[in-house]
Amino acid sequence: MTFSKAIIGGFQNALNFSGRSRRPDYWWFFLFVFAGAFAIGGVEMLAFAGGSQILTRAFQLIVFLPFLAVAWRRAQDTGRPGWWVLVPSGVVVGSAFVSGSVSRQVVGQLVDGQPGFAAPMAGQSTLILALAVLQIAAGAVLLWWMSRPSQRGANRFGPEPRVRAK
User: Fold this and answer.
1) If 0-12 CB within 10 Å is exposed, 13-18 middle and 19+ buried, where does residue 62 land?
2) Could you point out which of 28, 59, 67, 134 has its C-alpha 20 to 30 Å from the C-alpha of 37?
3) The pTM is what?
4) CA–CA dist 108, 99 (Å, integer)
5) Using an 8 Å Cβ cutoff, are 88 and 134 in contact?
6) Computed over its alpha carbons, how large is the radius of gyration of the chain?
7) Residues 20, 158: contact at Cβ < 8 Å?
8) What is the separation of C-alpha 147 from the centre of its chain, rounded to a whole number of angstroms?
């Protein structure tokens, strides 16, 4: 698997969440997404003096589904359900929800003139910290799984990708 074949294959299979993807498919596409976002972000910072990030966001939207599909199939290649790749994102959404409710509560107490807002905020900041640790742990586990070899032979998600039909 070459870099260009992995990118082309990633976009061709952007809506394919069944089957399996080998390590090179995933890691080459991962490199493309990371390097592309880094390069576009750098150009935008130079061109727009740290400004808009419109091109970076557009690139991220373009590669979101293909990367999700490759990661989904890669998880299945290791014998795990593809939805596991959504766990770190779910923690991010949960953290944003909790952070938003913390912000509303603190601002509401300040506007209402209630001086004792530090105690509830301390408890919720502990929850936010716990969610951050959970997100890092989930990401580390996912990274570990993605680096593992393919499950040998056919599994419940399909035949081993490197086995060629005759």
Assistant:
1) middle
2) 134
3) 0.77
4) 14
5) no
6) 21
7) yes
8) 15
Structure tokens at 10: 């990633």
Q: What is the DSSP code string of 30-42?
A: HHHHHHHHHHHHH
For residues 127 and 101, is the Cβ–Cβ distance under 8 A?
no
Written as six digits, the tokens of 35 are 């390097």
Query: What are the pLDDT digits (tens) for 89-148?
Result: 787 777 777 666 655 555 555 555 555 544 555 566 777 788 788 888 988 999 999 999
- Dihedral pair phi/psi, residue 156, rounded to 5°: -70, -10
Domain segments of the chain: what residues? 1-77, 80-153
Q: What torsion do the CA atoms of 78, 80, 82, 87 make, to the nearest 10 degrees? A: -120
Which residue is associated with the tokens 């596409």? Answer: 29
Amino acid at 7: I
